[in-house]
Amino acid sequence: MSAPVIDRAGRGRDAVAHERWAEAYTLLHARDRHPDEALTPDDLGALSDAAWWSGHLDESVAARLRAHSAHVAAGDHRGAGLAAWWLHDEYAGLGRPAAAAGWLHRAHHHLDGLPPCPEQSLLAGTDSEEATARGDGPGALAAAARMTRLAEDSADPDLPALSRQASSAALLAQGRRAEGLALLDEAVSAAAGGELSALCTGRLYCQALARCLEAADLGRAVEWTRTAMEWCAATDDGGNPFRGVCRAHRAEVLDLLGEWPAAEDEARRACREVPVDRLEAAAAAYRAAGDVQRRQGRPDEAARSYAHAHELGRLPQPGLALLRLAQGRADAAAAGLRLALACQDVRHGPLARARLLAAVTEVALARGAVREAADAAAELDALAGEVPLLRALADTAAGAVALAERPGAALPPLRRALDGWLRLRVPYEAARTRTLLAAAFRAAGDQEAARHELALARDGFERLGAAPDAHRAAALLASASRRWLPGGHDLL
Description:
Blueprint: H1 8-17, H2 21-33, H3 41-53, H4 57-73, H5 77-93, H6 97-111, H7 118-133, H8 137-152, H9 158-173, H10 177-192, H11 198-214, H12 218-234, H13 243-256, H14 260-273, H15 279-295, H16 299-311, H17 319-326, H18 330-343, H19 349-366, H20 370-384, H21 388-405, H22 411-424, H23 427-443, H24 447-464, H25 467-478, E1 483-485, E2 489-491
Antiparallel strand pairs: 1-2
Helix pairs in contact: 1-2, 1-3, 2-3, 3-4, 4-5, 5-6, 7-8, 7-9, 8-9, 9-10, 9-11, 10-11, 11-12, 11-13, 12-13, 13-14, 13-15, 14-15, 15-16, 15-17, 17-18, 18-19, 19-20, 19-21, 20-21, 21-22, 21-23, 22-23, 23-24, 24-25
């Protein structure tokens, strides 16, 4: 009797349907190497998905190319269009923009002339992203609305969730914060509720965490990073490609919350886990690690982390500028910040610009350029609105400028800033604001209040492990005749 035939393709399809990616890859890969008959176009697409989840990115692209060719040969324009869209997405992640653009064009070629279909929804989402990137707000919203209409006619639950995320991104880029965040909550809630595929869930978590941080919504970032990491742990079938990206965002959140050892550990793990098609997340993780190392007084390690971030294509600002300032290189710090501001675009979100403007204020004051500092603080104030994290940054900058110009006016904005940082539970910035408050109280003649704020600042810095700031606060506390001014300079 002949040996029984092993239906690897059928078992592979079942593993894909149940999102057992490592098993699916093993079965479909073996079936593809020793075929009794060729894999179908859909099987090739499944092999591509399984290869991607299993970390075999080159094989994923190769299988997707074969799937596209097979769909074309069969005259299946919807299947070919979907394969082309995925190839665009994969090539974009691999840092090959020309290939990505070519496959996006081919996806349009396959799908644009067809009656409305779900595959066109993904194209509309990409159109919305590209419109946002070039600053075309109305175009981005129109494309997102088209994506929503197409998604609603689909039986696939992933597409409506993805369309809400696309609409959210377009609205946030237009400054329509409440609407954008509400849609983002709706999309992520579907992911957290287990209603979506693993691929859609991972994409939504990564995009949502980025949007929350860009929009300076610390509360949402804390909540959704925790949820995302729990999902990553629960779906780790031999390696979740989204885990490193989510962990990089978590490192940024932990940094703000003052959990620095955990933040640095998460950043290091993220750098090891991030797949090669998501290197921007590794760059963010290196930058977060550098920020922790800089504040802890580890300048050489911080410089190396910032250099790694730069190598991966992300300007490590404002952290690198603040490191230069601490090294006494204020002019180099100012030059780096000017370059970073010039390189920004709408996709970076308000928090990135706010952090740069806060650093410009600090560096300018250290250089004695009070007018430059005041201009940066004014722009930051206009940007902040009533967003708590941005407002705390703006009030801190306004108070620092007032200390240099008219110390009597510094107390109100600094008190508002301290209240904001305490409410947000951002301990490092709260401690830094207390040092400014101490200078304001001293200028007002209230030595007791100044000593009280300095003592609280010193204790806060010591708990965090911010050694340079703790030593400075302790030295000021020991000398009633000295006051601290922004930029880290103690003046008699």
